[in-house]
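Anyone opening a protein record will find just a pair of labelled lines. The record below illustrates this layout.
***
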Amino acid sequence: MQREATPGRGATLRALALALVFTAVTGTLVAASLSWLKDARLGRPTLELTYARMLGKRLPALAEAGSRKLQTVAVLGDSSIVSYPDGQTVPERLQQAVDGLGPDPGRIHIASLAMPGAGPFDYYFTADRVADAGPDLVVIALNLDHFSKAWQGAYSRPQLAALIEPPRLVEALTLPLHWTGLTGDRLLFYIGIVQAGGYQPFYWLSLRQAQMARARDRFERWLQGGGEDTPEQRFKNRADEHTIARLFTAADIRHYRRAGLLEHYQETLAGLEPDHPVVAVLAATVERFRNDGVAVLVYLTPVEVSWLEAQGILNPSGLERSIDVMRQAVESSGGSFVDLHARLPADAFRDAPGHLAFPKPGQDGIDGPRLLADVLAPLVIENLD
């Protein structure tokens, strides 16, 4: 007697085969996603998007000022020039200073394109967008900290490379962009996304990346039996951070101590080599602007040298060598370079990284941003003429 086929067996086998295929594809995608996200830092994409959005808001105003026949100056820098109350940032003080020097106040428009944590790689990545706005002069605030491994680990923003225009892709591939965590395939991927659909898809992708990174961390904690941080764990985290801070700062948490200073300044105090990745990228950035006929002034942000000396880490000959390397890189690329790191009095600083002291509302006190702007203003006018 012929045995009848079991009803539904074919459908079951097909469903099982589809499940196996789905599992294999899903596993491949998850593995690829985890590999792509393995070096994601929580919040970092947000910082990159914040920088890009800031440019998107301020560059049109810069271009519009140029269309009104004003001389325009774009100022690139980090928190050492913008971490002050409204009206007291270095770019705002610089606007006031240049207006006070010339016979025609208002003929020079200063545009702040600075952001906390910005550095030379960010300036290189965004140079095409800044140059397209047509400034007459770009002022770059260079920090001794920009060359350190501490800066490299804390402030790398490789996704900003998405703003590089395709004609500069070959040059970008020849530069040591690996220093900021950027590989060739990621560079092509980021630029490709923007060129395919503009920056909005890149916003979306970056936000999804940040969300996936957070979800991954929560999942890892769940697998380890931790779940979300308890109030006790959050308190311990803050206590640990405070303990670490005390190890690296003076009693008033105003200055790094010796260990912290070495972490941030060892490279420049020992003497930079001409082939340092940041030096190479700085030179390429200056050359990019000069190729569009934009003048470039790079100044070395002042720090409290007396504090470095008091902590026994100041190496005058090594620092001088680093400054010479920076100067040669900038001037050989067509820019102007000036060292201002010893041009302000010690009480003009509020901490070791070069953040300046400023008076509180209704109180007298030294105005570090104004002092720095007064030094910069004649140099800006000189480079515009």
Observations:
- Residues 1-7, 31-45, 230-254 have pLDDT under 50 and may be disordered.
- DSSP finds 16 helices and five strands in the chain.
- The chain has one domain: 42-215+268-384.
- The two ends are 105 Å apart (CA to CA).
